[in-house]
Structures are given as structure tokens and as C-alpha cells.
Amino acid sequence: MPKSRSTVPTLIKTWIALYNTTDETIFTTDGAVVFCQLCEKKIVCSKKFQLQQHADTALHNSALKRRGNEKKKQLFVLDAKPKSGNVFNEDLCAALVVSNIPWNKLQIPEFKNFLEKYTGKHIPDESTLRKNYLGPCYDNVIIAIREVIGNSDIWIAVDETTDTNGRYIANLIVGVLKHDTPSQPYLLACKELPKTNHSTISRFINDNLKILWPAGGNDENLRLLLSDAAPYMVKTGDSLKVFYPNIVHVTCVAHMLNRVAEKVRELFPNVNKLINNVKKCFLKSPSRIQLYKETLPGLPLPPEPVITRWGTWIEAVIFNANNYEGIKTVVEKLDNDLSASVESCKKMFNLPTVKNDLVFIKINFSGLIQAITNLEDTKLTLVQSLEIMKNIISELSNIQGDKGSIIKTKITRLHQKNKGFQVMEQTESNEESIFK
After folding, report:
1. Short-list 396, 387, 292, CA closest to 345
2. Do 177 and 155 meet the contact criterion of CB atoms below 8 Å apart?
3. 237: which residues sit within 8 A by CB, 6+ positions away?
């Protein structure tokens, strides 16, 4: 005769009593669900053998061993049912994500055994974290961001990049807008785009601001948009003004200064050839590196400029200007080396104008490097950023000669195109600033 539903809770209590003692409770039940206190896991238990199967698993046996050295404590059924699962697993998931530790590291036996030994907890599989705990972890972070932002005025920064697989990835950062102190930025969204244009970027921003304000009605709180100066980003800023009436779009001033640095590189082609070939001379050539170290002991190798790393080309120019004679001596010692880069270096070193150009760049454009570095500091206030830009624009505008005039024209044109930055300059001393 099959058991009736009314008798199942009584039978479950009888089954779990075989495993519980007066000193320790291993299984608890609310009459419908059995919960293992050691494994912190729910058990489907409509038959007695299902409870026995769980008790015989390696997971349960290892938990019993860990429990042997722990302080005994009584847990209630309500304590065994956290809102989103195992609290330890939630905290572990959050810690790994924040620390940028890949979850597959948990599968390394030595690391897993170390954690289990000193935490006394079962370390879950990475798939368990992904399926059961990543979602609640994300929800908790979004809730925390909403609590910080509230109904405050905000700034956002958006940028798009291409990953190693050729996908277009957009990122949206948000922060509270303060007129006198910097604010903590928060990554609100990271999403793949089908293509990159003003339409997809505008939709990306509009859709993901709903994560911050799901109820809507906060359009006037968006005050500032930061982006690069790509044409589609400029068009995005214009299109968003329809939905966010108070928005001011400022293109990145550090990017603006980098474009000036690129103009400097364009104006000095011989210096550019020298820098590129000096880099190639000592790239993956142990014999040349050895000669360099023997000739110039204690001097580091010439820096390797990377176009996508702002200011590194001018840094390389300054290094070569400071150590011009020493590097020239090393290159001249490579008499038997027929490499194209070595021959090109010798040719550039023999040009009388190259040394003068190196010194000219060092004297007039060293401030660009410091300005870009300072502007990349996330702790800058609005007033400090404006002061840095004011000083560097004045410095670049006072460079003499034909090349100085070209640079002055370049920085003036870039400054005039950045309408949002001009608005910020005008509001610096205005007590009724829109940024308050």
C-alpha cells in the first residue's frame, strides 16, 4: 500500500533521526524539504534510500571529516535556507570576480585542498558558481550602485573597443557628479555590439541607464557624457540631447593631447625613423643587447614606443636625446651587421638635423607627457583638470618657429571642436554651475 502524503513528513523525521544526535544535527526538515547542514544542500527525499545515497557520497563524507574539528552548533531550518543559496559560495564567487581570479583555478587540487583545509568548507565546481551564484552576485552589485547613486546628478563615460576575437565591446561607466571632489566610478554595463555607429552606441547608453533607474523619470539627472572624439561618438552626444536635456558631451582631453603628440611625430619624419629603427635594433637580438650593456653599463635599453599607448613616442625621443652619443656609439660598433634597421640607424645618426630635432622635441613637448599622465588620474577634480589643460595649451601655443605655429593651430582647432569642454571652462567660476 503506497504511503499517503500526510504520512511522508512523519517518515522523513524518522529517517533523519537515524543520523542526528543530541549533540549534533546533520539533517533538518520543514516537513517538505530535507537540508544537509554539513553540505549546505537541499535533498530530494521522498524515499529513505535517497537520504542514504546522499550520506554515502564523497561530498558528505569529506564534510563529516571537516566537521570533526569544528565547534558544534545547532542550525535551524530557516538558517539553512538563505535567500540565494550557500552564503560561503556567494562570498567566494564575489571575491573571485572582484579579484579577477579565473574560476578554473578552483579545480587545481592543491589550491582546492588548501581552501578546504583552512575554511572548513566544500569548494564548489566552477560551473556551480556560474549557474547558481554569479546572477545573485551581479544583482547585489547593481543594488549597491543604485544605493550610492540614488537620485543624484551623474556623469557617464562610454567607450568601445575590439577584443581578440574581433567583437565590438562597449563599456559604460557611471558616477555621482560632484563639483568639488572626485567620485567613485562604477562599471554599469559591458556588452557586445553588432556594429559600431552612433545608433548602436546611443541605444546601448539608453538601454543600460534603465538598469540604474528602472522606474525612469531621472532623465534630467544625466549631466555629463565623456567619450573619445570619434565622429560617431560626437554624433551620439548630439542625439542623446533629445532624451537627456541637461547632458553636456565632453570628448577626452587626454586623447586630444595625444593627437597633438601624433602631430609632432608627423612633423619630424627623420626622428620617427630613428626611434623606430633603434627599437628594431635591440628587439630580439641578444648579441646587440649584450654589446649595448657592455658599452653603456647601468643604462636601460631604449624604450619601445607603442602607438596605442599615449605619449610613449615622445618618451622614447626624450630618452634618445638624453643618451644620444652613447646610443650612437653602440650603433657604430655594429660594423659587420648588415641589418636594414642598423643601416637606417647609422644613416639617421649621420644627419646633422636629427640631434637638433631631438633636443627641440625634448624642450618643447616634455610637458605633454606629464599632462597626459596627470589627466589619467581618476582622483582629479574638475578644477584641477581645467588647470592642467589651461597650462599645457598655453605652453604649446608659445612654441616658436614654423613647427610651433603648426602645433598651435592643431591644439586651437582641437580645443574649438570640443564644445563640451568649453562649456566646462565657462562654468568653472560660475556659482550657479550646472554641475552642482
Report:
1. 292
2. yes
3. 225, 227, 247, 249, 420
- Identify any residues that bridge with 42 across adjacent strands, giving them in sequence order: 35
Dihedral, 110, 115, 121, 124 alpha carbons, nearest 10: -60
Q: Are 304 and 316 in contact (CB under 8 A)?
A: yes
Q: Is 342 exposed, middle or buried (0-12, 13-18, 19+ CB in 10 A)?
A: buried
DSSP string covering 42-94, please?
A: EE--SSHHHHHHHHTSHHHHHHHHHHTTSPP----TTTT--TTS-HHHHHHHH
DSSP conformation class of 252: -
Pairing of strands 168-176, 186-193: antiparallel
Helix axes 253-267, 312-322, angle to 10 degrees: 50
Query: Which run of H or E residues covers position 286?
Result: helix 286-295
Q: 122: which DSSP letter?
A: P
Round the CA-based radius of gyration of the chain to a whole number and report it: 32
Question: Alpha-carbon distance 43 to 53, whole Å?
Answer: 10
Q: Are 151 and 218 in contact (CB under 8 A)?
A: yes
Could you report the per-residue pLDDT of 412-427, keeping only the tens digit for each?
Answer: 999 888 988 888 888 7
Helix 324-332 and helix 312-322, axial crossing angle in degrees, nearest 10: 80
What pTM, to 2 d.p., does this model score? 0.71
For residue range 121-161, what is the model confidence (pLDDT) as tens digits? Answer: 888 888 888 888 899 899 999 999 999 998 899 999 999 98
Instruction: Name the grid cell of 318.
Output: 626624450
- 226-243 burial, b at 16+ Cβ within 10 Å, e below that, comes to bbbbbebbbebbebbeee
